Amino acid sequence: MRARLFVSVCAGALFAIPAGAAAQARDDAAPQSDERDEGAAVSGDIIVTATRREERIRDVPISITAFTQEALTEKGIVGYEGIGRETPGVVLNRPTQNFNNFTARGIATNGYNANLQSSVAIYIDELPVSTIGNTTVVDPNLFDVERVEFLRGPQGTLFGSGSLSGAMRILTKSPDLNDFDASVLVDFGLTGSDSFRQRYNAMVNVPLVDDRLAIRAVGFYRDEDGYLDNVGTGVHNSNSLIDYGGRLVLKWQPTDRLSIKLLGSYEYSNPRDSSLTNPALGREKRVSDEPDRFTGKQMIANATVEYEFDFAKLTSSSTYSDFDQRFYVDLAGTFAPGSFPGAPIAFGLDADAYDKVFVQESRLASTLDGPFQFVVGGFYLHRRRDVDYFYRSSIPFLQARGLTGLPDKYFQKQFTHQISQELAGFGELTYRFSDRFWLTAGMRYGRISAQGFTEAGGYLASAFGFTYYDYALLGIPVNFNTFTPYAAVEGVKAKGSKPSWKASATFKPNDNLTTYATFATGFRAPIVNAFAGRPSLVDPNDIIIPFGASSDDLKSYEVGAKGSWLGGRVTINTAFYLIDWSNIQAQANRVSDSVQFATNIGAARSKGFEFEIGVIPATGWAVGVNGAYNDSKITRLSPEEAAISGAVLGHRLSAPRIQGAAYVAYSFDLASDVQATIAANAQHIGSFNSSFPNTPGRPNVPLVTFGKTDDYTNVNLSFGLKKGDLSAQLYVENLFDDHSITYIHPEAFLVSRFGTMRPRTVGIRVGYGI
C-alpha cells in the first residue's frame, strides 16, 4: 500500500497566518486558470456568524480568529489544546484532559477558576458548555466541524454572562442535501519509546431525498497511552486516555424557506489519571494514593428550526444536555509532612456530578440590503447540577492506624444540588450610512439566579466529639461510633439582573481595509458557595466560608484594523484594547481544610495589543507571524479584600506579558498529480503568575504554592503528500522535547501540581476525503 504523506503543522503555535493560507499556497503551486480568484481562500473571505448573521471575517468589528476544518486537519488539532495554542492573546490553562480554562486578554486571577464561572464562554453549536473552573468539561472532538470561531473581548450582548473576556464557538457541519460524501482520518503517534497514540475518525453523508432530506453521521475513537509514571499507585504511563463517541444529524428542508435540523451527539472521555507532575520526583513523575480522575460523559440533543421570511431569518434552537462527570482527587497535600505528628494522612475527595441543562434561544436576523440591519432574540437556560461529595481515607491507612467503624473508606458524605436559571433578551442594530461607514449598538438584559441545596442524608463520622482529621493527624486509634446525618438545608437564592452593552463604529477607507472602534461591557453570574457559613472542622479559628460572590463588572475599549492586499497574498489584523475590571470575582482556599470559596475584590486593568500577519511571498510559499502583548494588574484593593483573597495591590494577573508565533510552509508538485508540503512553526509563551501571592486569611503570609510558569517555546515540523482524495502526514510535535512548566495548580492539596507539554511525539496521519 503506497504511503502518501500530507503536510501538517500538527498541534502547533498560534495561527500566525490566515486559515486556509497553506491551502492557498498549495493551489498556487499547481496550474491554474486565468479566472481563478487568488484571494478566495484567504481569511478575509471566511464567512463567520459571530454576529449571528453571515459576514466575511474581515468585515466584522470584532477581534476574531476562525479555523476551518481544513486548517484544523492540517494542524492536527483535535481539541481545546490546539485552539489555545493557535489564538493570539489567549492561553489555555490545562492541568489535564477534560480540565480546561481559557484566559483571554489577561482576565484571570489564576489558571484554575475554582468555584468561578469561566471568563470565556464555550459553545458547541447553540449549547454553552463552559461552567465553573473546578468542573470537568469534556474536551470535544473537532473532526468534521464547519469551523471554530474564537471571539476576543466581552461578547455579552449575543453570548451571555459567561463571555466576560471572549467566546469560543464550535460549529458542527450540517448534512449536504445533494451529494454523498465520506471521509476518514487515522492518526498514529509515538511519545517516547512506549507511549502509543491512536486516533480514528470517520464521517458519512447520505442524501435521502434530493434537495430535501439528508443524514450525516460522525464517529471517533481515541486510545492514547500516557507518558507519566505514578509512583504512588505504581502505574507506568498512568495518564492514558480512552475517548469515543459520535453524532448523528438529520436535516429536512421541506421548502426553500424552511429547514429543520435534528442533532444527537454522545461523547465519553475517560482519562485514567491526571497529567499533573511533581518535578521533585523526577521527570514525567507524579504521585497520588489513587488515580486522580476527571472523566465526563455528555449527551446532547438539539432541534433547530430556521425559516426565511422576505426580510429576515428566524432561528429557533432547543437543546437538552445530560452530562455526568467524575472529579476524584487526592487531597493529601493539604497536610504537609511534619506539620502534625501523623501527617501526611490518606485524604481525598470523590465527587460525582450530574448536570441536566435545557437551553432555548430564538432570534430574528435581518436579511435585507437596506441601511438598517438587526438581530433580536431571547434566551432561556435551566441547569440542575447534583454533586455528591464523598471525603475518603483508604482501607490500608484505616487498618494501619487502627481506625475502625466506618462502613467503607468514606468518613464524610454529603449530597447537594444547585439550580440556576437565566432569562435574557438581546438585540443588535446596525445602521449603514454608506458602504464605507456604519454604526452598531447592542444590548442584552437578563435575570440570573442560583440556589444551592443540601439534601437530607449523608453523614459525618466522629467519635467522642472528634472527627477523622483529629484521630488521623494525631495517630490515635479509635472506633467511629457516631454518624451525624446532614439535614436538608435550602440555601439563599442569589439573583443578578444586569445589562450588557456594546457600541461600535466601522470605517472602510477602501475595499482592502476595515477599521473599527468598539466599547463593550461584561459580567459573570453571581456565585453561591456550597459550604457558606461552615466553620473548619480542622481549625475553628480559620475563615468562616462567606455567602458567595456578586457579579463582577467589566468595561472594554478596543480599536482595530483588518486589511487584505495583493489579491489576498498579504493580510494584517491588529487590535489594541484597554479593559477595566471591577468587583472581581476571585477564588480563595481555606488553609486548614482546603475548602474552596468565591468572594469579590477591588479592581484591575488590562491593556495590550494583538496582531496577525500572513504573507504568500511567492508561488507555493506561506509565511506568517503573530503576537500579543498584555499588561494586566490589580489597581484597587482594600485591606479586608487583600486579607481574604491573598491579593496584593499592583500584582500581575495570571496571563503572559508576551506571546507569539512564526509559521512557514512550502508547497510544490512532486509529480503531476502529487502535491507535497513542508511546514514548520514555533510558538512562544511568556511566564505568568499561578495565583495571588499571599495566603487567604493570613495577611502578608506568602502562599507556599505561589509560582510562575516557565517561558517556553514549542516547535513543530511536518512533511506530507496528497493525491486526489488520499492524503497522509508525517509530523513531529514538540521537536526539542521541551519540558517547561506550562501550568501551576494554585492549591496546596495537590502534591503533583505542575503541568507540562506532552513530550516529543512523532507520528503519521492518513486520510481520505479530508
TrEMBL record:
Residues 259-735 form the TonB-dependent receptor-like beta-barrel domain. Belongs to the TonB-dependent receptor family. It is found in: Cell outer membrane. It comes from Sphingomonas colocasiae. Its main location: membrane. Residues 1-21 form the signal peptide. Keywords: Cell outer membrane, Ion transport, Iron, Iron transport, Membrane, Receptor, Signal, TonB box, Transmembrane, Transmembrane beta strand, Transport. It is a multi-pass membrane protein. PANTHER family: FERRICHROME IRON RECEPTOR-RELATED (PTHR32552), TONB-DEPENDENT OUTER MEMBRANE RECEPTOR (PTHR32552:SF81). The keyword Transcription regulation does not apply. Pfam families: Plug (PF07715), TonB_dep_Rec_b-barrel (PF00593). The keyword Iron applies. Residues 57-167 form the TonB-dependent receptor plug domain. This is TonB-dependent receptor. It comes from the Bacteria. InterPro entries: Beta-barrel_TonB, Beta-barrel_TonB_sf, Plug_dom, TonB-dep_rcpt-like.
